[in-house]
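Hi, here's the filled form for the chain we discussed.

Project: internal
Contact: R.S.
Residues: 422
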Amino acid sequence: MTHTIALAYSGGLDTSIIVPWLKEHYDARIICVAGDIGQGDELEGVRAKALASGADECFIEDLRQEFVQDFIWPTLRAGAIYSRKYLLGTSMGRPLIARRQVEVARRVGADALAHGCTGKGNDQVRFELTYAAFAPDLPVIAPWREWDIRSRDDALVYAEKHNIPVAATREKIYSRDRNIWHISHEGGSLEDPSQPPPADLFMLTTAPELAPDKPEEVSIGFSKGTPVAVNGVFLDPVAILTTLNAIAGRHGVGRIDLVEDRLVGMKSRGVYETPGGTLLYTAHSELEQLILDRRTLAAKDAIAPRYADLVYEGRWWTTERDAYDAFVNVTQERVTGGVTLRLYKGTISIVSRASEYALYDERFVTFGEDEVYKQSDAAGFIRLYSLPDRVRALRDRELAAQAVAPALAPDEAPVLAASWQD
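And the returned structure, exactly as it came back:
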């Protein structure tokens, strides 16, 4: 009986060699599933390449709008940042691609799922948690956990032996993941964290020192925490990111170099470019600061790292995320307005922020004469606010007096204790 395997396919080095490997080891039809989440020209010729490698069919699914609207925007609204820097570009994409892979697998009658994730990485968990949520009945084939290929050099040898064209070379053997939100770079010389990333590594951002000598301002509009406009022009989600990526990229904004903790326990080093996303996080945070009260901000800041962990660990399809989203949605009801940023040689500064829901009110903060705030009221507020501190100080004085009293003459102790209590 011939089986059917649905393979998550990108056309990169790993998945390119998996097609012939699966053919060699399984009596099965290989159906490749590629998710377009904004890789750009990387998907050109992918279907032809898959078929030439031995695949029986290759589906390319346009997921860009869904990716931005249903995955990026909720993560942005939550303020989720992993390991202090990482804006979760790869992490957000995997659950969406894996779910569509399952949908295609059901459509073609596949009886197994396969992916090209290594046994050391996070992506194997992200893919397989999604499989567990939507196809718990289908077995999973993970060649990197089975075959005798142990390195990217070995993978290149296998590709050469089977005449499979790949973009990776021994000189530039980086592992990259690109989508409309970011591009990640790992492997090669980056595996030594003491070494700076090579100048020719970057693909989305200009080197800050080579960026324009003139600053550029960009305004971003939000409605209930969701980006809706750039420079006063309302755009769809994909166009917003495309526009902001171009603006931020030419000014060298959005680069990070991070040593992070992988889910499997080891540390790894990655270099990320997230130009438009960096602008959005900066502007969104600034608008929240203008609109939300301090306790709501504090509660949201407590949720943000937990949301980031959830996304990073592939736990997207969980009740936990539904609960966080419900909380975040309430906090974002009034996060409507605009923020203007100034970009200059890799830096971002705030030019202005405005919202009809702003809690900032000049009538309350002015140092001039005002009728809505009586400064004399502050004395009573401070007296009540400091009550725990005053009670503790009085108690400490009483205890100190009691400790000293036995050492004093009988007629001195009551006088001293009474004076301390005044």
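Let me know if anything looks off before we file it.
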